[in-house]
Design a protein that fits this description.
homodimer, Arc Repressor Mutant, subunit A, 2 domains, three-stranded antiparallel β-sheet, two-stranded antiparallel sheet, 11 helices, about 50% helix, about 20% strand, DNA-binding
Chain lengths: ~240, ~240
Amino acid sequence: MSHGPDIARIGALIGDPARAAMLTALMSGKALTASELARVAGIGAPTVSAHLVKLTEGGLIAVEKQGRHRYVRLAGAEVAEALEALLGLAQSRGHLPFRPGPDDQAMRRARVCYDHLAGEMGIALYRALQAGGALALTPDGLALTDRGQGLLDGLGLDMPALMRARRPACRTCLDWSERTHHLAGGAGAALLTRFQELGWLRPRQTSRALRVTLEGERELPRLFERLGQAGQGPPGP
Amino acid sequence: MSHGPDIARIGALIGDPARAAMLTALMSGKALTASELARVAGIGAPTVSAHLVKLTEGGLIAVEKQGRHRYVRLAGAEVAEALEALLGLAQSRGHLPFRPGPDDQAMRRARVCYDHLAGEMGIALYRALQAGGALALTPDGLALTDRGQGLLDGLGLDMPALMRARRPACRTCLDWSERTHHLAGGAGAALLTRFQELGWLRPRQTSRALRVTLEGERELPRLFERLGQAGQGPPGP
DNA sequence: GCAATGTTTCGCCCGGGAACGAAGTATGGA
DNA sequence: TCCATACTTCGTTCCCGGGCGAAACATTGC
């Protein structure tokens, strides 16, 4: 009767609390082992094993065997995007077990969204790039302008690799805490990596939230301002 | 343990085949009655009633009582967007019960995505607007340029109402069949309405797919070309 | 007021699937 | 070689939740 892809299958996969917890944990972008996931989801090893089979068959995760560990990560940026969309919906529908604790605040400030930066910092980055004329709409979607390429190059990103990659450099991703878009894609990923290399952001053990170091606290706003001002020539219409 | 909105609740709602069928049917943007949904989902009236309670409590649908009928529609554009994202994921993961039948082809060509145009036609519209310089990135997201406003006004859209509305005029939405973005938001909705008024597109009884009338077949490509050429002055950076 | 239609409530059945314990298999280190 | 760790497989239990039929409730039209 109803045509189109089978949404129920995926919904059911996400619909189990244990699996949802695992997937949410994997939004950190890190590859976690089966036992780590067991801890996160609050279930035993056998149960996790069963869940991993289902998630793999469903194409939501990829599993890599390495020695006696089994590393699990999301199957791709697409999956992360869809999950983020669901997170946004869940948030807006009040389905949030949210007592705004300290970790929650940290999440809103800066967090990993699969492989790029999200939260207030992610939004600030995206806006700065936009204000600086680094991004442009093309018929094929979002793209880096020449100026944008220059800016990122100046930050020390490996631009040739970025432009060569099959993955689109720029995509937008819906930020569930800020209810706007932030930058995803190859450039988004490279920027997060770079910020961590520079010691401005530091991952946490326990959650997707990122710690903004003292240096980051000083340098990131400065950077955003610089990026934003770069576009003080021809602003878009 | 894992923080963030409760994704499992919504996943579970979407995860039931009957509910998924109902939600997919509601992506047509039409308000359907409970019994129509029963037919779509292939279940009985009592079961539908129970599902409607859950979906309402979950904030995914809105129900409006009218006489002895109960009209059901999606709770908002947000829900439609998230569903479309899931449709895209399901499609890419091969979870598609797809024998490319005639209806499927029609869906890919033109269909309703909640309240705006999707499929090949939707993509073509979006690209034409972009090529014509009708759209611009702003720090607040996608927006209509002055030229864009002029173009849409020329098409007979009620621009004052559009700009006055609280709803953002332009948003992007992921097209699951074309794997790119198309235009959503107030302008997207208004354009679809206008195309139907002009008799270029006609809704079908049975599915989200739209019929492109003979006039539409002639006029839509012409329109897209005109829109795209409008930007032959100052193209973006 | 009465019959027809649309929807909900109740009670029941039934299946699927999530969870665990125990035992089995692989890997790494002493 | 032998044990410890990480994970899987198997078998079992158990409960949640979808489904229907029957009956109640609501609304419209005659």
